[in-house]
Amino acid sequence: MLKKTSHFLREANFIGGSWVEADSGAAIEVTNPATRQTIGTVPKCGRAETRRAIEAAQEAFQSWKKTSANDRAKLLRKLHDAIMDNQDALAELLVMEQGKPLFEAKGEVGMSAAYILWFAEEGRRVYGDVVPSPWADRRILVTKEPVGVIGAITPWNFPSSMLARKLGPALAAGCTAVAKPASQTPYSGLAWGVLAEEVGFPKGVINIVTGSASEIGDELTENPLVRKITFTGSTEIGKLLMQKAAGTVKKVSMELGGNAPFLVFDDADLDRAVEGAIIAKYRNSGQTCVCTNRFFVQDGIYDRFVEKLVEATKKLKVGSGLEDGVQQGPLIDDGAVEKVEELLADATEKGGKIATGGKRHDLGGTFFEPTVLTEASPRMRLMEEEIFGPVAPVFRFKEEAEGVAMANDTSFGLACYFYTSDLGRAFRVMEGLRYGLVGVNEGLITTVEAPFGGFKESGLGKEGGHQGIEDYLDTKYVCIGGLGL
Ligand code: ADP
What we know:
Number of strands: 20
Largest sheet: 7 strands, mixed
Strand order of the largest sheet: 14-15-16-13-12-17-18
Helix content: 25-40%
Oligomer: single chain
Bound molecules: adenosine-5'-diphosphate
Mean pLDDT: 97
Shape: globular
Low-confidence stretches: none
Strand content: 15-25%
């Protein structure tokens, strides 16, 4: 391990500007999914430590909210620079706990820095309104204020950038934060504490706790000092958090599951579609909420698409994320592999054919072969359930409307992709798809400048874009009367 990487490997929680253990002294082990070796431990905190973190954040909020947007932006720009100065070390840490290839990890860390910079800039453009008054002697102002302490709960698949999307707008808006990273990948989360301290954020502005998800989650959702919950993770836990947050009527932002369709029409540029398919399916070994879960390919191009997809899939190099040239790391844990196996068994029982892959990789552990499954049908469980692994099921359709209907036949609505060279069809299909993100002839579309967020049960609220800061602000109407005008 590089010396700089070990600097970011913090086995403590960051509360009120101090690095602390769990009250009980209990700890959770963190393992490297590629080697299955223990990397280290992190505190197993619960309600009491979380309450202290919330109180520290509330105290810090009293002065942080009064700083100017420009001063906050200056600190955020320093944070951006610190992330980029340490990009290699942070990426290596991310690979060790998460497993993705190093080039993807570097990309993620770069994206984290980009979110911080974007919101440093957006924070300076939080405009209110002066509204024409219906009364001659009164004036109307509309102002925006930070909501207060926010609770951020993040998943293991993007342990760095999912926090950047939440901390960036929160801090820029003048909020303070208590963050809970996933237990599988806590170090990339705790690294935000190391960076915050080094850059000089005031104590308590950023707090990071690890440990029991339900205990920390319960405190964050029930404590009235927390005014907003922002969550990225499964739809199941998202619904639970929404219910719990209802008790104190907190704002909520939810980035939940996806079930992304990827449609290829007969008139598509085939090579471009295959290139897009590989990145939309296999990035992070299929473990992203915008990963293609279902390919829908029109009859006339089906066989040629499958042939090329299989050829490209076979070329993917599987191995430890730190090895040169590796494109596919291990899955996060045994549960993830078992889920993939279950869905594949169900699909093959219902008529699906394995065109390549289909089983655990010879490397052992949680490595799985990149897989293409043909003759997929809507009766299969993977029509509605997220695979979250390197399996590409390919469905067949005949008419455009049928393809769009199949793509929409899900309770999810996060990302979708489609390939066509017909402009009219591009608009018809784009307008017909009920998804929050649409890639037209593109398989990777996330960028800090654009709003990211789902429709239907994929979530609420947007992250990124100028919209991404709105959820961290309260709008206040002020009526000034008695002006004697
Ligand atoms: P995944 O299946 O991707 O792990 P989860 O929704 O289970 O998705 O996890 C996402 C985040 O939510 C993680 O940080 C996890 O620890 C946290 N989490 C899980 N259960 C709860 C809960 N009951 N309350 C609060 N947070 C939870």
